[in-house]
Design goal:
By secondary structure, this protein is an alpha+beta fold. The chain is built from eleven helices and 21 strands. Among the domains are: 165 residues, no CATH class; 189 residues, no CATH class.
């Protein structure tokens, strides 16, 4: 009897300690949210400069002893942990533009929760399961502006039900989250209602019935429902406080730089056209030499890229090159490209096609990616009787890196290895180039950018020197250029640029005019 009484006392004492610790953790979490969340947005910049408070709080959630029998306590604990882990991941990657920039943001087991390594998806779907309580969709915030506003308080075991109701009411009465267009009789809903439609329909027959159960003013059933595009821009408070013009939604132009990857369900179609024209080249001494004919090469590159299931760090795609070569009179200009009457030679071919893979090697550096393409030549005799395109197999590997420089500037760097293998049994040598490029971009608005760029491209192969053949630098060129991009619609962007080949050795002395269209579905 005494043993049972002693055991009961120890159990009571242990339970009391756990309850006290849990309440203390809720209070510390509440203080954190109140200090760092304003109007549903987070002070990421301030947290990135002083991480100790957040780090200590995250450590407490990793060590917490949780009793799953107490469902409300567990539920509040998981909600708070989810929102804190999202903030922690974005603080570590700051200044990130979006959680989508971070490989494995939702799927990687990067978080320690009650002694268990776990992913954000597992917390949401396995620990909480919004299918049983759709209100959780308005309490869990993914770090993007498209999410419901983040609460500036911690969820607690004692007040869980009332806080979930309050947060759901806040979201469903927010005119930026539910967008009524009375002239069109349309109700704009977040993609959340489309992605998780089955969750909301379990309690009510229709989405509108679920929404109206939390509305102050019911929405008419005559309104037709449309789903507006999800804004994956980071929910940072500073874009509003420091520069009101930056409070707008960021476009695909800013979110999907060449370094960025697409997630499963997202894809890109890129149509990039380049017209290179020359009527002179430069010799081994760099002196410009007139050519007997003008030469124009128009290349259309079609790229299709997609994310893959269960991996946020790999993309697959395909490249297709269509090339037109035109040789004309020496005094002609690019405007004569479409004049077939004066053309000495003109031909259009599908020059090459091949698969492409893109990969982020380091989770901690999401803006550094490697892309590798292997192109197979399609048309025959691409280099005779006139050169149209390289009649070779091509292995093209590119290293991309970009870095934001404040709110309006971005630096993009690229280092490439382009190796061309001869496919015919001729005496032509294999060769490779190592282009090095740098771009400095300025974003006057979220939908537009202007940029300047430079590229140095040396070519290496076996070179005959004093009747001896040795491997070395055979030719090179340097080009400088300017360009601009504009986001015509949320999915479609346009690009125009000009480049002048200002220096070269045994290489071209022309210039290029480039035009591109880019369609991104997400």
């Amino acid at each position: 009897m005494r043993l049972k009484l002693f055991s009961s006392s120890i159990l009571f004492l242990f339970t009391s300690i756990l309850i006290a610790q849990s309440e203390q953790l809720e209070q510390i979490t509440n203080d954190f949210f109140q200090a760092n969340v304003s109007n549903g947005l987070v002070k990421y910049k301030e947290l990135s400069e002083e991480k100790s408070q957040l780090d200590q709080l995250i450590q407490l959630y990793g060590m917490e002893q949780l009793s799953v029998a107490e469902s409300n306590k567990a539920k509040a604990y998981y909600i708070n942990a989810y929102n804190l882990f999202v903030i922690k991941a974005l603080v570590e990657a700051y200044p990130a533009n979006s959680p989508q920039e971070i490989p494995g943001f939702f799927t990687a087991k990067n978080h320690l929760l009650a002694g268990e390594k776990i992913s954000l998806n597992a917390i949401e779907k396995e620990k909480l399961n919004p299918a049983k309580d759709p209100r959780l969709h308005f309490a869990l915030v993914c770090g993007a502006k498209g999410c419901p506003p983040l609460a500036n308080y911690a969820f607690t075991a004692d007040n869980l039900d009332s806080l979930l109701n309050m947060q759901t009411k806040v979201a469903l009465n927010d005119t930026t989250f539910l967008r009524e267009n009375m002239s069109k009789q349309e109700l704009g809903l977040s993609q959340i209602f489309k992605w998780y439609e089955a969750d909301f329909k379990q309690e009510k027959k229709t989405l509108l019935e679920y929404i109206n159960s939390f509305r102050e003013n019911a929405i008419s059933s005559e309104m037709s429902i449309v789903f507006y595009e999800y804004d994956w821009t980071i929910n940072s408070v500073y874009s509003l406080e420091q520069n009101p013009d930056e409070g707008r939604e960021k476009s695909n132009l800013q979110l999907f730089t060449p370094s960025a990857l697409f997630q499963w369900g997202e894809y890109e179609v890129n149509f990039f056209n380049s017209l290179y024209f020359q009527n002179s080249n430069r010799n081994a001494q760099g002196e410009e030499i007139d050519l007997p004919n003008s030469q124009a090469f128009f290349n259309s590159l079609i790229q299709i890229t997609s994310g893959i299931p269960k991996s946020s760090r790999i993309n697959f795609g395909v490249d297709i090159n269509i090339t037109t070569a035109r040789y004309g009179l020496a005094e002609e200009t690019p405007a004569d490209f479409f004049n077939d009457e004066t053309a000495i030679y003109k031909k259009t071919i599908v020059s090459s096609i091949g698969p492409r893979i893109k990969y982020v090697p380091f989770k901690s550096i999401p803006r550094l990616s490697i892309q590798s393409t292997f192109l197979f030549p399609v048309a025959k005799n691409q280099e005779t009787p006139f050169f149209i395109f390289h009649d070779r197999y091509t292995w093209f590997t590119q290293l991309f890196f970009d870095q934001n420089l404040g709110e309006h500037f971005q630096l993009f760097l690229e280092a490439d290895l382009l190796y061309r293998f001869n496919r015919n049994s001729t005496n032509e040598e294999d060769f490779f180039r190592v282009p090095l490029s740098g771009f400095l971009s300025y974003f006057p608005t979220s939908k537009s950018t202007i940029y300047a760029f430079s590229q140095y491209s040396p070519r290496f192969e076996n070179v005959i020197n004093n009747e001896m053949s040795e491997f070395g630098l055979s030719q090179w060129f340097t080009q400088l250029g300017i360009g601009g991009k504009y986001q015509i619609s949320p999915k479609l962007g346009i690009e125009l640029s000009y480049a002048d080949f200002i220096l070269s050795n045994n290489d071209g002395a022309g210039y290029a005019i480039n035009f591109g269209l880019r369609y991104i579905y997400r």
